[in-house]
Amino acid sequence: TWKWVVGPMFLYLCERLVRFWRSQQKVVITKVVIHPFKTIELQMMKKGFKMEVGQYIFVKCPAVSKLEWHPFTLTSAPEEDYFSIHVRIVGDWTEGLFNACGCDKQEFQEAWKLPKIAVDGPFGTASEDVFSYETVMLVGAGIGVTPFASVLKSVWYKYCHDATNLKLKKIYFYWLCRDTHAFEWFADLLQSLEAQMQERNNAEFLSYNIYLTGWDESQATHFAVHHEEEKDVITGLKQKTLYGRPNWENEFKTIAGQHPGSRIGVFLCGPEGLADTLNKQSNSNSEADPRGVHFIFNKENF
C-alpha cells in the first residue's frame, strides 16, 4: 500500500510547499474603491503575477484572520498593470476586510495603513477559452458576473490594439439579477464599452441583455413610463432592462439562426439549476451535422 500512497503524498506535499511560497510573496494594495451597496474593489500588485481572463485567486488578510483563505474572481484584464477583485460585504470576514481597509471611515486612508494581504494563485477556469470562439454567449447570475468583467475588459483592449487578429467577432451577454443592488459598479463598465464601440461604428459587436429576475411587470410599471427615453432609467444604458427570466429556448434558436454553421461557446457563472437549463438547451439546439451550428457549454459555480 505504501508504494501507491507515497507518490501522491509526495506530489501533494510539493504542491502545498509551492502554494505556501507563493502566498508569502509581497502583495501591495495600490487602490481601494468603494462601490455602492457595500461592494469594494481592491487593486493590487505582485511581482511576477501573470493572469488570464476569468481566473480566480485565494486571498488571506491576517488582520482579519490568520488562517482563513477565500476565493475571489479577478475582475481586471491581463493587459492592465494591476490585478483587482470585487468583494461584496456579506459576512464576518468580508466585514472585517471592509473595516481593515478603512472603508468605514470618512477620511482619506493612507496607503501604509492598509492591511497586509496574502494571495495564492491565479487558478484557471472555463472562461479562459472565450477567445477560442468567433461567437460566445456569456451568462452571469448576480455576483457571478465578475469573471465576465475581466473578459469584457480584455476584449476591449484586444479590440483597440489589433482588432483584425481577434478571432472573437460577436458577444451575447446576459446578466440575471434579483434586484438593482449589483448594477452600479458593472453598469459603469458596460457604459464605457457601449460608448467606445459606437465611436468605432461597431455597436453590434456586443449585444447584452440585463434581467431583473426579482421583479415582475407589475412592479416595473413605474419605470415603464420612462421606456421611451434614450437611456434606461436603472442602468443608464441604451439597452433597456428586462423583467422576469429570459426564455432560453427562444434565445438559443435566435442565435443559432443568426450564426449557421458556427461553434458557439456558452459560458456560465451561476447556480447549478441554471447550468442544467443551459446545458440542455445547448444540446437540443446543436445539429447532428458536423457542418451545422454547435453550442459548446462551459460552466463554473460559486
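(ticket continues) Second input and output from the same batch:
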Amino acid sequence: RNMSSAGPEGRKKMRECEGLIDSLVYYIQGAIADHEPNDKATENCVCILHNLSYQLEIELPESYAQSIYMQRRNISNNDKTPGCFGTRSRKVKEKQQDTPLPEEKSNPKGVESLWHSTLIRIYLSLIAKSTRNYTQEASLGALQNLTAGTGPMPLAVARTVVQKASGLPSIRAMLHVSHPAVKKTAVSLLRNLSRNTSLQNDIAREVLPDLVSILPEGVPGCEAACETTASVCYTLLNLTQSSAHNARLLLSAHGLPKLIAISINDSNMFSKASRAASVLLYSLWSHTDLHSAYKK
C-alpha cells in the first residue's frame, strides 16, 4: 500500500508485476463473497488498486493504449475540452457522444482489470456493503480516478457506473455519511460523471436533490467543507447549464436561497465556494423561461 503511492515509476512497476493486480482483485472478491467487506486486508487491497488507477490512461504505454482503442478516431490534441466555466460547444458534445468505447475482454489480466466492469462492480459493492471509511473512500477514489479524463476509458467507466451497474444509489448514500473525506470523494466522483452529457439527466434524476440537500445554509465551516461545497456547485453547474428541466429541479429542491447565501461570502478563505456558487447562479439565470420562478 505504501509502495503504490510512491509516484509514477512505482505505479508503473506494480502494474507490470505479473499476477499482482489479479491477486488483489481475487482477494477482494473472496472477502465480498464471505460477507467480510470490513477487514483490514480488503482495505489495503482497495487502497492499492485506488493508487494504481491514478492517471492510468495517461501512464499506459502508447502501444498498449493503441491496442485498447483500435476503434478510436483521430481527435486533434488541439481541440478545446470543456471546463467548469461557460457552456459546452456543440462539437464537444458530439465528440463525446460519438467516441467509440474500448471493447471489454471477458477474462481481463493484470492492468486490464483496473478499468474492467468486474472491478467497477466490486467497488460499488464495497461502497454499499463496507462500513469502513477508508475502504469506502478508496473505492470512490478509484472510480474518481478512472472517470477523471476525457478519453474513451473514462467515458466507458462512467457509463458502466451509471447505466450498466446502476451505481448511483450507492454513491448517493455516501453523500450523507458523517466522514468528510468520504463525502468529498463521493462529490468529486459525481462531478466527473456529470461531465458526460449522455448521463446528465440520469444523474440529475437520481442525485440532484441530494446534492442540494448537502449544501450548507451559508458559509462553509472549514476549508474541507468549502472544497466539497465548491465541488457540489460545479456538479450542479454541469447538470443544469444545458437543461432547463434540471434547473427547475434545483429550484424545487430549494437550492436558490442556499446558493445566494454561499455566493455573498467575502472571506478569502472560503472564496472558492463563493465563486463556484456565483458561477452556478450566473448559469441558472441563462434559462430565461425560469426568471419569473426565480424571482418568486
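Agent notes: Confidence is low (pLDDT under 50) at residues 70-101. The chain has 17 helices and no strands. Closing as not reproducible unless the customer responds.
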